[in-house]
Amino acid sequence: MATRTTIDGDPDDILCATDTTVSDTSEAAALDMPSRVLTGATRVERAWAHWRALGAPRFLVAPMVDNSELPFRMLCRKYGAEAAYTPMLHSRIFSENEKYRSMEFTTCKEDRPLFVQFCANDPKILLEAARRVAPHCDYIDINLGCPQRIARRGYYGAFLMENQPLIKSLVETLALNLDVPVSCKIRIFPNLDDTISYAKMLEEAGCSLLAVHGRTRDQKDSTKFKADWAALRAVKQALRIPVLANGNIRHMADVNSCLEETGCDGVLSAETLLENPALFAGYKTVEWREEGDEDGCLDQADLAVEYLRLCEKYPVPWRMVRSHVHKLLGDWFRIHPEVREELNKQSTLTFEWLYDMVRRLKELGVRVPLYGGRNAVVDKIVVNGAAS
Ligand SMILES: Cc1cc2nc3c(=O)[nH]c(=O)nc-3n(C[C@H](O)[C@H](O)[C@H](O)COP(=O)(O)O)c2cc1C
């Protein structure tokens, strides 16, 4: 979850196409908006009204540094994601550095509902960064869950959990000075009572939506530690604002169990979506195939090509493209590691080379399908009343 701050030098840091959809609207943002105070009950009503006006999204793309960027969000939205988070942006660098803003935050009008996530430890700097993106998003999200060393050094993410007065002032400053609601993404404490009082403090401070990753700060390895859905249920029951669950989502059956067991209003998925951006349309990777699951007539190479097309339309740094190609085609590369090695040798990438690589992988004759899917797509079309 490291945030990258250097932009020059590495060809992977160059945008993958020259067109850009970024617009810096900081000038247009209201810079002297008066503060306002709402009672707790009104805030909660507003929180629900806002969530419902967005269509009460249940299936969300979690924030992922270098991975939940615009083209990937658009791909996931096409396959059933109902809302998405940007990667974590560093509030101070975002406020100070125009190049960082234009490289790391891009969006388009179809990219909604959108949560823009920042890490921060200074309320004024966070507010300044938030004002720049407020016109383009539906929530300003504060990252209170990053457990990595870089967050310890930078004093943000989960390392603020011991300084709740600071967290409170971050949330209050946004809630009092912005029209766009503030949301937070947290990890749980080892002790349930601590988690509940933390969550209540956030709600009280003006947080309009809380996403809870059901692991503690020390439980970094998701393969070793299962997310604690019972803790998520307790948080949901203790709060009055919408609560989203995060952790242990590998396919739609997990989504349904999670919503049922936790009572939460939606789920966030991160790692599974990287391999399978069609998760929320009901597709699953071969690892989770059960008897009766049929070939979904869609595979990760198809999704890789769709992703590349979106990158041509919505340029992002090549390092993000490279990262997604590795994750999307991991199952295929395990069968043909020589193709992965060739990719690793390319210090400069082009779309022609990548499309050709996918074509060659297919010609090698092994296909790894995604399973299921079609029924879920039909359901989604009926639910949303819109064809894809
Ligand atoms: C590549 C990657 C980058 C991530 N970056 C962020 C981030 O920027 N902000 C954040 O709050 N969480 C970040 N996370 C954590 C995820 O949002 C999520 O909380 C975690 O992976 C658990 O969800 P999962 O079990 O669905 O993977 C990242 C996770 C991954 C795999």
TrEMBL record:
InterPro entries: Aldolase_TIM, DUS-like_FMN-bd, tRNA_hU_synthase_CS. Its EC number is 1.3.1.88. Coiled coil: none annotated. It is an enzyme of class 1 (oxidoreductase). It holds the Pfam family Dus. Its cofactor is FMN. Signal peptide: none annotated. Keywords: Flavoprotein, FMN, NAD, NADP, Oxidoreductase, tRNA processing. Belongs to the Dus family. Dus1 subfamily. This is tRNA-dihydrouridine(16/17) synthase [NAD(P)(+)]. It comes from Rhynchospora breviuscula.
